[in-house]
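Fold these two proteins, one after the other.
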Amino acid sequence: MKKGMAIMMCGLLMLSGSIYAQAGETEEKKGEAMKKKQWSLVWSDEFSGTEIDRSKWNFDIGNWIVDENGNGVAPGWGNNEKEYYTDSKENAYTKDGKLILKAIKEQTTDQFGTYDYTSAKVKTKGLFSHKYGRYEIMAKLPSGKGIWPALWMLPEEDKYGTWAASGEIDIMESWGSKPNLVAGTIHYGEGWPNNKYTGKDYEFKDGTTTEDWHTYALEWEPGELRWYVDGEHYQTQNKWYSKGTGNAANFSYPAPFDQNFYLIMNLAVGGWFDGDPDASTVFPKQMEIDYVRVFDLKNGKYKTPTEPAVEPAVLPADAKQPLSDGNYIYDAAFEQPITDVDSGDDAFSRDYWNFVHLPDFGGQGTISVDQDLAKVTVTNPGNQLYSLQLIQNLSLAEGGTYKVSFDAKSDSARNIMVKTGAGAERGWVKYSNEEVFALTEELKSYSYTFTMGNETDFLSRLEFNLGGNGTSPVWIGNVRVEDITGESLNENASKPVLSNGNHVYNGTFDQGNMDRLTYWNLHTEGAKANASVEENTREARLDIKNGGKTPDAIQFSQKGLQLVKGNEYTLTLKTRAAKPRTIELNVTNQDGSIHYSQPKTIDLTTSMEEKTIVFTMTEESDLEAQLLLNAGGSKEDVYLDDVVLLKTKDGNVDQHPLKNGDFTAGLAPWSPYIHFDASAVVAAENGEAKIKVENEGNEPWSVLLEQGNMKLSGNATYEVSFKAKSSKSREMELTIENAAYTRFLSEKLALTEEMQTYTYEFFMPADETAALKFLMGKAVGSPIEKHEIVIDDVVLKVKQ
């Protein structure tokens, strides 16, 4: 199901399938369906009661995704849906042994708005969830433009992160405008917007449609999902991944589809999937479910998952092939003409570069070549990142892993977004994440990697999205896309600090290869031991057969830690033993000859307890240090989990990362941004920033003053202060955020005609490059008459 937003978890999918098959199916067919697997019923609802069984089903209510405090996060369930879900007996009820979900054209209102349709969405969350098995639903679905029935599943717990990192399984969903088709899909990857999906359509072959009774089934085993319609198997999925925020690697396969999921059935109106209803759509519409059945294998012997094979990517002969140097990008020096494309021109160059500017979204600009670099001059950035784009088509093979690299700069701090994906013919599917890069005045190299999880695409697109981020020009050059499929990971290489501040990779033992020990090493000398990870607890276990004579006879280590002279570090981990014993912890250089922390003997009990070591790096900086756990000298097994090494005091931190806060040097390095829907002038006069606003636009960020590329230190508390006033009383917003728009501080403050001093504190969880932004666009009470805002004496400092 194509989601419009990330927030997660609210798509519409579907449960399906049929062991017992539709009415009228022969016993012979049923027998054939049962031959492959022997299933045992573990949960069902035949809807034979006079009312919906509330011990099995509860309801989603409303039209909005809301947070834990009841605040609206996203309308339309994140999918642009138009219905308001109720638990009314008009919208959901049982009749003649069937569950009826009915969509009605009628207005209803809540605290967030007014809606033109009501419908129903039932789910088993908190009542029933299951892992693996066969899920079968017999249903009769409505058709009509803008009607979106779905049978689907979501995780009972978001074990791996927000939607879709924790997964979603669509057993069946259908387009109301295409009643001859249904679809089965999985959603996975990272949290939105870096989510992925794969799936396949099924077309009815016997002249029937979704309006007839059919059974939709999913068979789910470790590492494999199979979809069926009326007993006919039409697709298998066994390649996916999950990656959490701050992870060094993907969660170990078969995550995220290795946890309990609950069932959902709903009838949506409108949304991205089939668009909105039109004049041909006659209401009411109803979806009928005869039964829902969940089975386990009788013998409990599910498949053993197999790591998806990494094979060289192979392109057909008629695809656009890489150049002799391995680059999939042609004309890296921009020697060929660049095709100019606007909203009315679809004459894309299939081999060389295209400059896309979309007036419908406000994008205006020009492109030229400057010393082998493409220079994009931005006249109007538009209101979307894709309002201005530099694009080249390329062929990507299913299963291939690719590295994208390029050089870029601007004449001031600004962001660009780069991604690799499909065009309109494949629904703009993303093949890579949407990578955001913070450019500076210095030409620097940037890169990202991704694996092509979709079918081979001859017309993939490498997109540099240059809109929506101010009028600063962008220079781009030396663009390369290379196939790196099968290149081995150097687990002992120097490891940049993770985004959550942790220097240890895979300290939770649930990432990387299926053994979950990626980045860790076990070395024995005069001893015998094995390392493994417990399936249920995800704890690392040192299975000791012979402990040797000394603690260092068994060493469990991680190499490549980056330690900086003068910084204080804190190492924490949870650990226990089969029986009470001791272990030794230490942080050293690569060969163990220099100790950065003194060896510390740790007493272990049979209970998991947190242990801590604090040390200051007094030696020269070492980007290849190692963490050592010595477990020799005893035969008792050792368990550990949640290994974290954080910088807790920065001996090299920039105490005042913001520059020219008194504006005595003009605006540099500050950057103003005026969106096309606003009108304002930003200048530095007499040691103050003055923003003359004639029209504040439609968004808070329509009028903006920011200072970017500030290096902020992790595990530090900062204080920001400034003076400000406005000739008209109004609200202004202050944020401090990174290139991915993660906010570390967000404050709305009231400006008056009197100059006031504002002071705020915030904590940085990890090292970041961030920007301080004053948002002076649309606010409470807008539109505001012409007014002038004055800002002065901006200070950002580490709080002592």
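Now the second one:
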Amino acid sequence: MATVLLLFTSLGINSNAPGMTKRRGQGHWRWQALWWHLFFLLWSITRGQTRYSVPEELKQGSVVGNLAKDLGLALSDISDRKLRVASEVGKPQYFTVDTGKGELVVNDRIDRETLCGQSASCVLTLQVLIDKPLQLYKVEVEIQDINDNSPMFPSQEIIIEIAESTAAGARFPLETARDIDVGINSVRSYTLSKDDLFSLKIKDVSGGRKIPELVLSKSLDREKKATHHLQLTAFDGGNPVKSGISQITINVLDNNDNFPVFEKNVYKVSVSENSAQGASIIKLTAKDVDDGPNGEVEYSFGVHTPDVVQSVFDIDAITGEISLKGTLDFETNANFEVDISAKDKGNPRMEGHCTVHIEVIDINDNAPVIILTSEPNPVPEDAPNGTVVALISARDSDFGDNGKVTLRLSNGFPFNLKPSFSDNYALVIKGVLDREKMSEYNIEITATDSGSPPLSSKTIIQISISDVNDNPPVFSQSSYNVYLKENGVPGSILYSVSASDLDSGENAKISYSILDSKVQDVSVSSYVYINSDNGSIYSMHSFDYEKLKVFQIQVQAKDQGSPSLSSNTTVHVFILDQNDNAPSVIYPSSAALGSLSHQRMPRSAKAGHLVTKVTAVDADSGHNAWISYKLAEATDASLFTVNQFTGEVRTKRAVYEQDESSQRLLIEIRDDGQPVQSSTVTVSILLEDGLHEPILDLEQKVAEPSRKNGRIALYLILSLASVSVLSLVTFVILAVKCIRSSSSSSSCCMRRSDCDDYKNPNRNLQIQLNTDGPIKYVEVLGGDMMSQSQSFRSCMSPMSEYSDFTLIKPSSTTDFKEVISVLDASLPDSTWTFESQQVR
């Protein structure tokens, strides 16, 4: 409804005016025009959505359009999100938002002529804001011109003096009217009040302007009528039409029958463009043969002299001297055609004319300009010498030698300027390009003209060097060492290799792959795979240190150039041991955990008696394989003890008569890893009477003092001496036998390379392991321990409570390869020596 009322107002129609519904003549077509106007306005708003068209001079509060609806906002968003038109400080706000309806309404008077002058298009751009979240919309409002301004003449009254002798057909230019409205609302026509002596002609000039001219239709007779009054009316094309009026007063003058005459009709003069203001150009003279005022001449520029001429030159009305008022510029105007009028002071005034042709002489006041005829494209770094990079031309707006230009290229660039024709040059390659060293050149070119003094200018041309695939990928390291814990999660990342390529674009895009190789006769691709994009290596499954300790991966980095380039690197993967193996009991039983061993012991055994020895190994390495022994449970805990490091089971005291005959020990074997792994073995000991005490306890018996008899001390000393001598003799005999049997291969003796050799005539085998921590014992047993054990002192058990080790006669089925594998698993860094001896 607001839009309809707005159209009513713009068309000047009052819907309540009397006669609106009664007349079907002129009123009917005005209603049709109204509805068509309404249709096109509504169509424009709907189609543009955020562009509105409104006439100027709308009343404050007039509705422009439903802004909220056109922006797709709900009515609740108007106040909640603060829909508003942004305003600039110090500038009027022509529109605002009705927060109740979301309509864009007029807030201030809109004068199209003030905003846009006589521009054909007048569009106001509004910035519409909403908060939460903050959004900015661009809304354009086109201000349509209405015919609210009438044509106006510069002067309300024009006085023209015409001599009565003026011939019919003479024309007199009149002032043109101006209308600040635009388009059809501007000046369109002129009319002259009716007069038999005068008529009106319209002269079309450049720019679409129309100049009215007064034409004398008949000769004047001052005696009949000395003054004529005419009315010149200018009409615009608006609806309704508006007009402006200028009164013309024509005074008929008495006859002045001679007019001033110049010496020449055309004068030619030259002036330098750097002439100072006030410099004299030429002095003109016109003569009038009349006497008195009719012969006095005044000089002026012609009526239609362009403004540019009047802004540069000035003429003295009395002397006729033309001088320089402004600044000359040869490049803007090299020539001027100036019309000069000379009028006498007669009545009527007579007028003579001439033309002055002023030629501007060029000086070297313009520096040359460098023009890129073709923008340089990226140049491949392998482009050959002579390749054209860019086309360059030079221009100088000066004339002659002042406009001759030469180009010069600064030194140090692999380019050269090659002249072609008419100040055109080709920039060509003259050296080797390497994008990896210099990817972009900023070439300075200097243009110098031939003027005096010469002027020059400089410009910088930026040339990019495009890449070719001339650099292979380079890994950050020649090889990589990766330390990986065993039992990892399959699919976890092992390591990320990275390679870089000095090239760019596709030539620098790298893909990674694993070259096929064998690991334990299996393709390495079954162990790991690699992300081709980032070089991350992932495991295909978990690794077992006990099966695989180290392997190599050959990784290739390949770029995507054409042809592609590649390089390789080696990734050494070291598997780190984890404590994933529990100690394995070798003796008293090679069975599974929780095994049961039966041992016999005489009741006459004393404190320190070696009952048995538990021996275990751990398949892990390092600290994870350090084994300790602990008595977990016992029938009588006060009777037995277990050595923490050797696993020896000894008596803590003598056997009492009341001790049970059957003793049961649960021994726990623990490693030193994290988390701790353990196993147990159960030892069943049977106490028997009359069982011969083994030689193993001889040392204890000799060392035990007798409380009943003081003379036992002497026997003890003798026994110790005998044992010492016997031990020395035995040691010598064994040493001699080992030396003699070094070439024999029937019986085997194994020893560590840093220990003495011990042999037993019964072909017993003893293997002792020593690490940096607690001592381990590994015994290969072939028979009943209690029946065939002998005691010798060890040279490698400084941490053992009893520095003994046991030689056990092996069975015929002893597999020494299994022993060696156990030794290698426990002490991979040890060196072993094998010796054999024929059994007698």
